[in-house]
Amino acid sequence: AQSVAQPEDQVNVAEGNPLTVKCTYSVSGNPYLFWYVQYPNRGLQFLLKYITGDNLVKGSYGFEAEFNKSQTSFHLKKPSALVSDSALYFCASYGNNRLAFGKGNQVVVIP
Amino acid sequence: DVKVTQSSRYLVKRTGEKVFLECVQDMDHENMFWYRQDPGLGLRLIYFSYDVKMKEKGDIPEGYSVSREKKERFSLILESASTNQTSMYLCASSLNKMGASTYEQYFGPGTRLTVT
């Protein structure tokens, strides 16, 4: 069985501060991990993925994520948050030809 | 760029009506998916299809059926809509070719369905 967990419902951060959105995974075998973002009344947009290779993955809009095997984590990060980063963020893992999504994290960037 | 389109952004139907939600992708993707999204529950997979005329149940298939007659089109059918099917419905597609699969899914804009 594969699953991901996003332990926080909402993350509040001041504009210009570092942003971290947490995700832990539980998968058998090598994990394939993803981050998506959803802006209000829109579908999900792909941000980045980890399949293999470097533990630090760079993605769209200045986001990056760090794969940590010992902590079974794949946290999403951005060095300096923008108000326009306010959105819903989903972590996902791949297995059996499908993605399993976390429940999502609402990020609020305060001007 | 991959484009996934859904037939309606907003839909209001009455209890007991038959509802069709259409999804079309233009990137020749093998896999297509239907999810529903509810606050606090994230995305839950209803059905997916990895080829024309093929379908697999997801986590919550009850009350839904699907049809995939052409590679680019995947339809979700609510045979008799109920109020507990009021939700946001998202369609997605992904590439699945031997040696070329990329695993990430591309999503349409969603259909917000209200059943009264």
Number of strands of chain B: 11
- Pattern of helices and strands of chain A: EEEEEEEEEEEE
Total of DSSP H or I helical runs spanning 4+ residues of chain A: 0
The stretches of 5 or more residues of chain A where confidence is low (pLDDT under 50) are none
The largest sheet of chain A is:
6 strands, mixed
Keywords, separated by commas or semicolons:
heterodimer, A: mainly beta, 6-stranded mixed sheet, 4-stranded antiparallel sheet, B: 116 residues, mainly beta, 7-stranded mixed sheet, 0% helix
Structural write-up:
The complex is a heterodimer of chains A (111) and B (116). In chain A, 0% of the residues lie in helices and 54% in strands. Chain A has no helices and twelve strands. In chain A, the strands form three sheets. In chain A, strands 2, 5, 6, 10, 11 and 12 form a six-stranded mixed beta sheet that branches. The model of chain A has no long low-confidence stretch (mean pLDDT 93). Chain B has 116 residues and is mainly beta. In chain B, the strands form two sheets. In chain B, strands 2, 4, 5, 6, 9, 10 and 11 form a seven-stranded mixed beta sheet that branches. A four-stranded antiparallel beta sheet of chain B has the order 1-3-8-7, with no helix packed on it. The N and C termini of chain B lie far apart (37 Å). The chains are: A mainly beta (111), B mainly beta (116).
Summarize the structure.
The complex is a heterodimer of chains A (111) and B (116). Chain A has 111 residues and is mainly β.
Topology, pairings included?
The complex is a heterodimer of chains A (111) and B (116).
Chain A: E1 3-5, E2 10-14, E3 19-21, E4 24-26, E5 33-38, E6 44-50, E7 56-58, E8 64-68, E9 73-78, E10 87-95, E11 98-101, E12 105-110
Parallel strand pairs in A: 2-12
Antiparallel strand pairs in A: 1-4, 3-9, 5-6, 5-10, 7-8, 8-9, 10-11, 10-12
Chain B: E1 4-6, E2 10-13, E3 19-25, E4 31-38, E5 42-49, E6 56-57, E7 65-70, E8 73-78, E9 87-94, E10 106-107, E11 111-115
Parallel strand pairs in B: 2-11
Antiparallel strand pairs in B: 1-3, 3-8, 4-5, 4-9, 5-6, 7-8, 9-10, 9-11
